[in-house]
Amino acid sequence: MKAFWEKLGRWIAVRPLAAAGAATLLAILLLALLAPVLPLQDPQSVNMHDKLLPPSAAHPMGTDDLGRDILSRVVNGARTSLLVSVVVVACASVFGMGVGLTAGYFGGMADELMMRTTDIFLAFPGLILAMAVAVVLGPGVVPTIVALSIVWWPWYARLARSEALMHKQADFVEAARATGVPTWRILRSHILPNSLSPLIVQATLDMGYAILTTASLSFIGLGVQEPTAEWGAMLNIGRKYLLSAWWFITFPGLAIFITVLAINLAGDGLRDYLDPRTRKRGA
Amino acid sequence: MLDRQVMVRYIVKRLALLTITLLGVLTLTFFVSHVVPGDPARLAAGVRARPEQVEALRTRLGLDRPLWQQYGHYIAGVVRGDLGESIRTRRPVSADLAEYFPATVELTAFAMILCLLIGIPLGIVSAVKRESVIDHVSRVASTAAVSMPTFWLGLLLQLLFFRWLQILPATGRLGFYLSPPAHATGLYVLDSLFSGNWTALGDSLVHLILPATALAASSMAVITRMTRSSLLEILSLDYVRTARSKGLAEKVVILKHALRNALLPSLTVIGLQVGVLLAGAVLIEVVFSWPGIGLYAVQSITFVDFQAILGVTLITAIVYSGVNLIVDVLYGVIDPRIHY
Q: How confident is the model at residue B39 (pLDDT cuts 50, 70, 90)?
């Protein structure tokens, strides 16, 4: 246990920014998980007498157009954003990894088919494809998750494919094949574990993009919608009151910014930790 | 001569691949528009349509025919430039796109110019003066820029420069008291330049400042980082040391010897940023009421206007794929080591 604390201390000293990012992220996660038991006002309670009040002791972030407490909605919005982004990245990475590892390992037609299929998906800027799919699937949390996963899996498939290509020639894989280990076990116990670390880094950094894209979709009126507390949807309403209520757009946006920043800082730290080669690049 | 033949063969091969990709893109959009949403005739006719109206529309749009025939019809239509009819504007989608697209081109082009004019020099300075104040500030700023939602940055800029400082306009392409310059390209800056309309030129440039800045921020950060890290890598190579040790001025070493090689990897990144800018333009156009295809798509969302949204999706995919093809070909032109 003592060794763990020493190691942690050294890590904080070497990478203060990554540590700050990880700590912030942890705090946001805790806030999101504990939101129902925190002494916050009901995020849905409408009170037209209190609408568009500036920040005060009673409402530290002010109130929105329906008199709801913005602080409470920002904290509850973290639940939505984190849930969507975690599930999207999990779905996209598991599916993409399965496809990519298989295609890369077998090569030939399977590989060609996968590459051409991903070409199609990567021909769209991500948000634009997500927008088209989200229009079809309609509003809500689940359609948003599906739309974003459809956009994201090709990136993981490409990455996993290149990893599989790299590892399938390795001596230990040849040895496993020669001794008659079944193919699916080679994939599972040899190729997959060795391909995992770049995929984990990618997944971590993608959480930030997923949060940004989720917010973007709801900002243009797709995806997660009122009355669910969600940062992008709040900004969509708030921009109509830009000239009269600066707090309405400031705080939900700040929440997105801080969360994504924390993920990016922590993700960069994780990348340097898992891949020492990038340490000296200084980028 | 041989090189040129090889190059032409490469371009032809890439064009063939691009055609396959675009056919796939069409298949995907067909699937999205004809198969998934239940009853497109119902949607196209609108909520208030009577059953017989829906049936009439179904026959007119050919939706009662077998799926493979509809597919053929759809592809043939797109090839002819027929993207269907918008149920919101009651006009052909291609006509709508022709009207809205120039505004998007103008916005993204200016954002890209900002990215290159600021991102690349900043990356060079950060690499050359590593660990200096400029380097640290630009690193903090670029981490912040990639973490910030584009549309939120746009709203903050409006709040600061329009609401509080009152020095820049927040919405639109021109002041309401001005009429657009004579139409030639649809890009107001170019059109007013061509027609010598200096008032319109100044005003359209002023209107571009905030949206282009908000749109450019995150891509600029990516380009700065990329330029910095690839220049740092090049500066540690032997040939740079040789150039230095034979007494060349530092400026010559960096700008003539190192930069040319350092910019190559940035080229691919710049191509990818075109996609980021096009997607970001959707959000920025909403924030700044900028009448481009992004605003057109978002306005269509409320009406569940599939044809319009798919038209926008399709045109962005084509532009994006085209730009990336050009980047790959350029790569070969600039770097003699790359053989196709």
A: low
Helix pair A192-219, B259-287: axis angle to 10 deg: 40
The beta strand positions in B200-265, using DSSP E, are none
pTM of the model: 0.88
Bridge partners, residue A69, by sequence: A63
Strand partners, B85: B92
Residue B2: pLDDT over 60: no
Tell me the shortest Cα–Cα distance from B25 to chain A, in angstroms. 6
Please provide the distance, in angstroms rounded to a whole number, between the alpha carbons at the two ends of chain B.
Answer: 14
For residue B128, count other CB atoms closer than 10 A to its CB. 18
Q: Establish if A215 touches chain B: CB-CB under 8 angstroms.
A: yes
Q: Which tokens belong to A170?
A: 């390795």
| Closest alpha carbon to B324 in A16, A123, A181 | A123
User: In Å, how far is B199's CA from the nearest CA of chain A?
Assistant: 28
Q: If we measure between CA atoms, which residue out of B232, B198, B210 comes closest to residue B287?
A: B210
Distance CA B248, CA B260 (A): 16
For a pLDDT cut of 90, what percent of chain A falls above it? 30
What CA–CA distances, in Å, run from B162 to B86, B206, B217?
34, 12, 19
Whole-angstrom Cα distance, residue A192 to residue A188?
Answer: 5
Cβ B107 vs Cβ B281: under 8 Å: yes
With CA atoms as reference, report the closest residue to B288 among B137, B111, B131, B118: B111
CA distance to partner chain B, nearest, from residue A71 (Å)? 18
Chain A, chain B: beta-carbon pairs less than 8 Å apart: 142
Q: Out of B29, B149, B278, whose CB is closest to A216?
A: B149
Say which of A116, A131, A243 has its CB closest to residue B24.
A116
User: Which run of H or of E encompasses A270?
Assistant: helix A246-274
Tell whether the model's pLDDT for residue A266 goes beyond 80: yes
* Distance of alpha carbon A142 from alpha carbon A228, whole angstroms: 13
CB contact under 8 A, B151 and A212: no
- In DSSP terms, B92 is beta-bridged to B85
B-chain residue closest to A214, CA distance = B149
Residue-level pLDDT at B54: 80
Residues of B in contact with A120 (CB under 8 A): 21, 24-25, 27-28
What residue in B sits closest to A283 (Cα-Cα)? Answer: B229
Calculate how close chain B gets to A121, using CA atoms only, in Å: 8
Tell me which residue has tokens 């927040």: B170
CB contact under 8 A, A120 and B21: yes
